[in-house]
């Protein structure tokens, strides 16, 4: 009996020792597993992207002398976060091409953007960076200015120009259709006039037809302003006008209307974008007020970039 009890005791002690060892080993396995999981979490965590470095402290811009180009150079001077940055000035087409490529590859890019423009129709998932210093202003209007004496010389042309107003979406639709179809802005603008006679009738209310009266519209070379100029050209030609659209640099727009070389312009962006030029010549032309409200300019990025403000950027030190 004693021998049996002794064997059982020995067996129980052996089992206990095995369980203790297994328990200790199990604890080590659990710790190793947790460590392994933690390491995996660290490996899987995405590092925060330094977008400033990613774009090489460069803003992709458009033509030198454009209102937004001048304003962006001011922003670089005013924002500490843009210290040491540069704006790559080239052309609107080049900017749009770089934007297309960046978005197709989900790569970072910062552009000088504005509404109305067809890029927002093509890439709706874009956003303006907040501008706490107000360098780019709030929403803008596009104004109509005419030479002094136009109302006396060409009263019907003056009346039509004065009654012209439309929406951001109208202009963007023309620009986007031109981009998608490959048709030039003038052709698309003529189609728009045919398809939007309800709006056209409001502009032409009380306007009499003429017989070949010349009228010169001075515009900038950008598609947004070309859209409005060619829409009005089409409307006026249906009333018997002989219309010329002259695209020039924005500074020359104001100079031409001020000195009477052109009859009217639908291109000035106010109160900020073209303020310097407007102020220089403001006493030498007549301001007929906005032909479009809700325009906007600023620095624009794709939605997939985790940026909200210009101040989220970093100086190039």
Automatic annotation (TrEMBL):
Signal peptide boundaries: 1-22
PROSITE patterns xref list: PROKAR_LIPOPROTEIN (PS51257)
GO-annotated cellular components: ATP-binding cassette (ABC) transporter complex
Domain ABC-type glycine betaine transport system substrate-binding: 50-194, 217-315
Subcellular location(s) of the protein: Cell membrane
One GO term of the biological process aspect: choline transport
Cross-referenced Pfam families: OpuAC
InterPro entries: ABC_Gly_betaine_transp_sub-bd
Alphabetized PANTHER family for the sequence: GLYCINE BETAINE/PROLINE BETAINE TRANSPORT SYSTEM PERMEASE PROTEIN PROW, GLYCINE BETAINE_PROLINE BETAINE TRANSPORT SYSTEM PERMEASE PROTEIN PROW
Protein name: Glycine betaine/proline transport system substrate-binding protein
UniProt source species: Lentibacillus halodurans
